[in-house]
Amino acid sequence: MNPAASQGGAYGVQVLIAGRQKQWRDEIAGQIRRAGYSATACDCGVDALTVLVLGLPVDVLVADVSLEGELCCSQLAVEARALRPGLRIVLASDLAEAEAAELVPDALLVSQHARDGALASTVREALASRG
Question: At what angle do helices 22-34 and 118-128 cross, to 10 degrees?
């Protein structure tokens, strides 16, 4: 195991991004990479879940609450948590905070239109809170 990753350093941290809008995915991936993390982006919940099922390393899942389709955001979060109980989840939403928190009670919330590294900061917070 990479010593930097086990100490919570940015090196080796993998962030999975799931969102249907390419511009949003690209913007979030850019924020994540500028923070020193690796980013993998998927345009649907099925693809994101496939990444997890295949056993690829993922430390944090960032999902757009408006993700729809065969596997919507809340279903993706539930399935991801079933596969990887320790996975940290960040929900990007412009819903009222209480409404978004009901989707996945222990997920961290960030504005869907987070700018200036706000999402990367929330990812750091998620990493710091893992056991």
Answer: 60
Tokens describing residue 61: 């899942």
> Which residue intervals of 7-44 are DSSP H helices?
22-34
Query: Reduced to 3 states, what is the DSSP secondary structure of residue 9?
Result: coil
Report the distance separating Cα 24 and Cα 36, nearest Å: 19
Buried b (16+ CB within 10 A) or exposed e, 1-27: eeeebeeeebebbbbbbbbbeeebbeb
- State the angle between helix axes of 45-53 and 73-83 in degrees (0 to 180), rounded to the nearest 10: 0
Which amino acid type is present at position 93? S
Q: What is the mean pLDDT of residues 108-118?
A: 72
Which stretches does DSSP call E strand in the chain? 14-18, 38-42, 60-64, 88-92, 108-110
pTM above 0.85, yes or no: no
